[in-house]
């Protein structure tokens, strides 16, 4: 007498389910997959504070004083980023130059120097490239005035040309008509072609 194949399959399936359940209880819990971003742990925080960059001194109210900001915006950072000292120190936390330049500005301000004197001291120490913009004097004045003069001149020329063109159109003598030279035979042929075209 042979056993029913369906009951045998049910029995083997049940055994397989019991073995799988027992194996799952014995396996240790799987560690969560770490975040793919470097420096982030399982909870999403930095594993090491050094990953965030160099430690900085705590900011004080003097660091964000409007007068200090105005002075630092007139001075170029020497790290090669072409930003002013204030923007570099508040946006590029890997820069080592701008915090030192900021300390120099604070020290000079504590010595009683005003903004112009601090900029002059930086120019004396680092050269003209310490300024964000050259002073508007001497040859530098041409750099400030020349673009405005050129744009104004080109705008005036454009307005003059457009005005002359408008005058020609208003008097009924279009500029294109003066350039057309046609013989009477050519004009007659053109009129015939236009009349045939209208007839169609």
Secondary-structure blueprint:
Layout lengths: L4 H22 L39 H7 L12 H7 L5 H14 L4 H12 L13 H31 L4 H5 L4 H16 L1
Structure summarized in a few sentences:
The chain contains 8 helices and no strands. By secondary structure, the protein is mainly α.
Describe this structure in words.
The chain has 200 residues and is mainly α. It has a domain of 71 residues: Helicase, Ruva Protein, domain 3. 57% of the residues lie in helices and 0% in strands. The protein has eight helices and no strands. The longest helix has 31 residues. The radius of gyration is 41 Å and the shape is flat. The protein starts with a helix and ends with a helix.
Q: What is the SS-derived class?
A: mainly alpha
End-to-end separation: 101 Å
- How many strands, which pairing sense, and closed or not: the largest β-sheet? none
CATH topology category name of the domain at 60-130: Helicase, Ruva Protein, domain 3
CATH class placement of the domain at 60-130 = Mainly Alpha
State the share of residues found in helices, binned by percent.
Answer: 55-70%
Report low-confidence residues grouped into runs of 5 or more: none
| CATH architecture descriptor name of the domain at 60-130 | Orthogonal Bundle
Mean pLDDT across all residues, rounded?
79
């Amino acid at each position: 007498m042979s056993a029913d194949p369906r009951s045998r399959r049910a029995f083997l399936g049940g055994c397989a389910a019991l073995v799988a359940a027992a194996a799952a209880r014995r396996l240790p819990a799987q560690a969560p997959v770490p975040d793919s971003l470097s420096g982030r742990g399982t909870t999403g925080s930095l594993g090491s504070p050094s990953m965030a960059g160099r430690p900085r001194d705590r900011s004080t109210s003097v660091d964000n004083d409007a007068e200090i900001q105005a002075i630092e915006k007139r001075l170029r950072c020497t790290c090669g980023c072409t930003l002013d000292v204030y923007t570099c120190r508040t946006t590029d936390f890997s820069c080592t130059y701008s915090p030192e330049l900021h300390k120099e500005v604070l020290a000079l301000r504590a010595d009683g120097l005003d903004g112009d004197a601090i900029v002059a001291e930086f120019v004396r120490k680092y050269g003209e490239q310490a300024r964000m913009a050259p002073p508007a004097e001497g040859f530098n004045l041409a750099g400030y005035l020349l673009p405005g003069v050129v744009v104004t001149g080109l705008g005036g020329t454009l307005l003059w040309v457009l005005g002359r063109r408008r005058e020609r159109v208003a008097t009924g003598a279009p500029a294109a008509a003066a350039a057309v030279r046609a013989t009477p035979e050519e004009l007659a042929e053109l009129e015939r072609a236009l009349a045939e075209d209208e007839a169609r």
